């Protein structure tokens, strides 16, 4: 049989868990400086939950004006903060406005009906608002995780990571539904009863799960960021040599299974002269501009890397040399017509292009790369600003 001591112990455990959660998130934000905005918001979500449950437990001990309405508003605020933290981690933008709006509406609705013996209206408002916020956060996280290039990483992350948020939202909906059932128990969580006992046990587990989910999302984001740093050239944000070689080896492995590919080797013309005349900073700007100008000519499946200096290479899967020539010619014309704006003057820029298509006789990708390089060399010999197959 459930006694009042049982439910009070469960409520105290909830305070302990959420309090610990708040402490850990604060440490992550202040000591480890790990996603400080999201971590602080999660600390806030846990702290609001602690305050809300503590006020709930103090009903009848502290003045009603302090424990009822403020406690309920804090409960909704806790879920609003959870939603904001999820957006800060998955979308890198602290979307606090929708949550603040829900808290404000809930606060008004809670104040609309006086707190008396029957607290079902208030329980309904708190549960529905919190469920809406949590499910909203779940949908946001699901979308952000599942979209290609999630978190700017260029690859998909498993959307089901957002599932715990749906679980918590559903539990809150059940709590709201319970208040409309004729058999529904009292919404006062201190009162002993099977439903309250079950609800509090589940809430305990889900509080842990909620914190673990957010911590896991944060870890995932960190891993993706490190992966990105490892494979990107810091100046131009294209693939670095190692990552490009990997992509190339992968494409070459598919050649045996009938999937062709072509390479476009790109090298800026007279880059040393530009560097010497305008300085290294202008050279860097020219390289970044070159990448920005070329990017619209690429498909999502193409891989673009910086091989070194002012030399780049574009890998075009499922493309023959004629297709590569079309792309390269479009790129050449775009580069030629986009001068570098430096010191309020336009400086002409151009690039040379060498092409190669993978052939079944190519032992490995370096043979294809060598042919593209040789073609590029011919393009330079021809006077530059040309495409050479
Ligand atoms: N600003 C800048 N310059 C770089 C970078 N990496 C390499 N360089 C410079 O790029 C220049 C390359 O010069 P070259 O290989 O002679 O090429 P080029 O002057 O373009 O000559 P062609 O390719 O024959 O037209 C050198 O001066 C390098 O110092 C970089 O990241 N930033």
UniProtKB/TrEMBL annotation:
It is an enzyme of class 2 (transferase). The keyword Cytoplasm does not apply. It comes from the Bacteria. Residues 259-389 form the GGDEF domain. It catalyses: 2 GTP = 3',3'-c-di-GMP + 2 diphosphate. Its EC number is 2.7.7.65. The chain crosses the membrane at residues 71-91, 98-115, 121-145, 157-178, 198-224. GO terms for molecular function: diguanylate cyclase activity. The keyword Transmembrane helix applies. InterPro entries: Diguanylate_Cyclase (IPR050469), GGDEF_dom (IPR000160), Nucleotide_cyclase (IPR029787), Rev_trsase/Diguanyl_cyclase (IPR043128). Keywords: Membrane, Nucleotidyltransferase, Transferase, Transmembrane, Transmembrane helix. This is diguanylate cyclase. It comes from Pelomonas dachongensis. The lineage of its organism: Bacteria, Pseudomonadati, Pseudomonadota, Betaproteobacteria, Burkholderiales.
């Amino acid at each position: 049989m459930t006694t009042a001591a049982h439910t009070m112990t469960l409520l105290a455990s909830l305070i302990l868990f959420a309090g610990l959660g708040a402490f850990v998130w604060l440490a992550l934000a202040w000591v480890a400086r790990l996603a400080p905005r999201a971590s602080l918001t999660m600390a806030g979500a846990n702290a609001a939950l602690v305050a809300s449950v503590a006020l709930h437990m103090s009903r009848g001990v502290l003045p009603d004006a302090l424990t009822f309405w403020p406690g309920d508003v804090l409960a909704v605020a806790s879920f609003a903060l959870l939603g904001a933290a999820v957006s800060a981690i998955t979308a890198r933008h602290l979307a606090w406005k929708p949550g603040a709006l829900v808290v404000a509406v809930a606060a008004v609705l809670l104040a609309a009906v006086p707190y008396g013996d029957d607290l079902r209206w208030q329980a309904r408002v708190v549960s529905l608002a919190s469920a809406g916020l949590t499910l909203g956060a779940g949908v946001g996280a699901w979308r952000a995780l599942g979209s290609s290039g999630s978190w700017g990483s260029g690859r998909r992350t498993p959307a089901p990571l957002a599932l715990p948020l749906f679980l918590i939202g559903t539990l809150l909906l059940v709590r709201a539904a319970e208040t409309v059932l004729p058999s529904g128990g009292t919404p006062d969580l201190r009162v002993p009863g099977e439903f309250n006992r079950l609800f509090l046990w589940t809430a305990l587990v889900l509080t842990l799960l909620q914190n673990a989910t957010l911590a896991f999302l944060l870890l995932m984001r960190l891993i993706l960021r490190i992966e990105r740093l490892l494979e990107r050239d810091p100046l131009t944000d294209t693939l670095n040599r190692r990552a490009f070689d990997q992509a190339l080896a992968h494409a070459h492995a598919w050649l045996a299974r009938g999937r062709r590919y072509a390479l476009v080797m790109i090298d800026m013309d007279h880059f040393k002269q530009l560097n010497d005349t305008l300085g290294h900073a202008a050279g860097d700007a020219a390289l970044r501009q070159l990448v920005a100008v070329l990017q619209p000519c690429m498909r999502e499946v193409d891989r673009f890397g910086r091989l070194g200096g002012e030399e780049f290479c574009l890998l075009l899967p499922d493309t023959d040399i004629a297709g590569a020539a079309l792309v390269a010619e479009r790129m050449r014309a775009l580069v030629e017509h986009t001068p570098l704006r430096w010191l309020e003057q336009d400086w002409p820029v151009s690039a040379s292009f060498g092409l190669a298509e993978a052939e079944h006789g190519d032992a490995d990708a370096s043979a294809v790369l060598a042919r593209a390089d040789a073609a590029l060399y011919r393009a330079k010999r021809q006077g530059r600003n040309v495409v050479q197959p």
